[in-house]
Amino acid sequence: MSETYDASEQNVLADVFAYMLRQPTKDGGHKRAANVKRPWWEDDEHEAAIFSHLSAWKHGVKEDPDSGSHPLVHLSWRGLAIAFQETYGQKDPALMEMFKKGTRLG
Domain ranges in the chain? Predict the structure, then answer.
């Protein structure tokens, strides 16, 4: 490995992943607005959905029919939702000081 590591790669990675996560996030928002989904932070169906998206991918699906994103992006989104719930509880992050708009994360 002769190239010099560029730490800005971390920001590029975070930006790319945030971009990818927006599609399933918006899809969930549309479903929430239609009152067919609970808030993600209290939803207890994330684990089952992980396996559903994994199965879709294993069966050759490359694009979720609702969001247009890859099923593994949905799987990742659901994994992050579980990690949030297990770390912070089933609380609305908009009401948590550390996640309020304008608070710098990381």
Answer: 8-99
